[in-house]
Design brief:
This protein is mostly helical and 219 residues long. The chain contains eight helices and no strands. It has one domain. Helix 1 runs antiparallel to helix 6 and helix 3 runs antiparallel to helix 4. It starts with a helix and ends with a helix.
């Protein structure tokens, strides 16, 4: 979770530090379109019930992990170079494309990470209350990490290179723990999403209602 949320802060610093205003405007416009398209493609893949869940989850996970690693390596090389040369790229500047492209790709990576985390929630939760609790944990973690990241990136060296280095490190650290959870997806354990697929509607398991039902003897 921290890897996905800190990425947003690195992106928020990457474009203002190294790009002109109109380059940032172009980046904001294009990255949103590309991120929506890629997010829908990921959702289409994860929703394809003709493919076993185990394979859907693993293909998506390793695709995102490998792409993210390549993009963060690319960004690490660029910001290390930029810290020495201190460029300000406009879309007519030589070398604009290689820095602009990694910004677009990292924005796509953030979108894919975020959507995949909600897929995780759907697989971990066994009933509706658990979906709510896990989603609340996800959003609370997001707020905490973003607060930390915004504070740290107020320091110049972190805004220029530190945020990218940090995210690259978090990506490396996060892969193994995430895999330990994901490799269990597709086993015999029934999840909330499985019940939706079978019944066609979201099952509601209200603990308070069940308790009251038992006390009054209702059937």
């Amino acid at each position: 979770m921290s890897c996905g949320f800190c990425e947003k802060i690195a992106l928020a610093d990457f474009s203002p530090v190294w790009f002109s205003v109109r380059s940032r405007a172009l980046g904001s416009f294009l990255s949103g379109i590309v991120a929506v398209i890629c997010g829908n493609l990921l959702g289409h893949h994860l929703d394809r019930t003709s493919i076993p869940l185990r394979f859907r989850a693993r293909i998506a996970f390793w695709s995102i992990a490998v792409l993210q690693g390549a993009w963060w390596l690319w960004a690490t090389i660029l910001v290390t170079e930029f810290r020495t040369s201190q460029p300000t790229y406009d879309w007519s500047s030589p070398g604009f494309g290689r820095g602009f492209a990694v910004f677009i790709f990292l924005t796509v990576g953030f979108q894919l990470n975020y959507l995949f985390l909600y897929f995780f929630i759907g697989q971990l939760a066994q009933n509706e209350p658990e979906v709510i609790r896990y989603a609340a944990l996800l959003r609370g973690t997001e707020s905490a990490w973003q607060a930390i990241s915004y504070g740290i990136t107020s320091i110049t060296i972190f805004a220029e290179v530190g945020a990218v280095y940090w995210n690259f490190s978090l990506w490396a650290v996060a892969i193994w723990p995430a895999w330990l959870v994901l490799r269990e997806f597709g086993d015999e354990r029934k999840t909330f999403e499985d019940e939706i697929d079978v019944e066609g509607t979201a099952p509601v398991h209200n603990a308070i209602f069940e308790s009251q039902k038992g006390d009054t003897g209702l059937n």
